[in-house]
Amino acid sequence: MTSPAETEEVERLAEQDPRIQAEIDEIRTSLESYAQQFSQPPPPFLKDKIWAALGSSSNVVINPESDVTPYAAPQEAPVADQAFVQMERAPFWQTYGVAASFILLAFSILFNLYLLSQLRKTEGLLARATEDRSQLASQLEINQAGFTDLQSTLAFYRNPENRIIQLTAAKDTAGAGVVVFWNRKENRVAVTIQNLPPPPPGQQYQLWAIVDKKPVDAGVFNANIPSVQNMKNIAQAQAFAVTLEKEGGSPQPTGSILMLAEV
Length: 263
Fold this sequence. Notes:
This protein is 46% helix and 22% strand.
């Protein structure tokens, strides 16, 4: 048998999970069918024995001088014979069978509760595993993209057609540097930075190609990206320079030259 608290918990779970309610209904139906199938009426000889006991214990009071119809004094109903009481009781095997059925019902409910808890635990583990798998897939994509960039950078570094130009820093940017990679065959230009201080808010570093002593915009670059940054294509140049311009760049240099190197 279950305690009141366990019974309340079972009823709550049965409301949440139709499978548990269905199993409880099935067990109740089985118990009712069991009781109807094995119920036994009292033996016929008991009826005669009861009436005989009632007849022998009744007292009748009669007044011979009176014309009144004989009157039977009311008597208390006789106590049924002990044998009848015992026969009325269910056989011990039937009583224990019902008790065993309730015990099986309790164990079945507890076992279903255990299975339900294990199912929820498994669902939680599966959800976490799915989330971990998604995170790993995202990380793998990031790593693959980084590996592709690294391969592209290495290929760019190793290209024998590249000219490597180290820009010289001015006094106010001492210790900083910019390396320009220029592929004259493909007109490609890229830069890497070395200890370049971050620009003031609203400003950005800009690269210039000096062509016939005139600056040509080669694009802006970020000081916080250590990897290779691709710039605009340049077909001809006698030198490269770096200035500090407004964010997004300027069509003509407005600031002083911070770094300069001839090709």
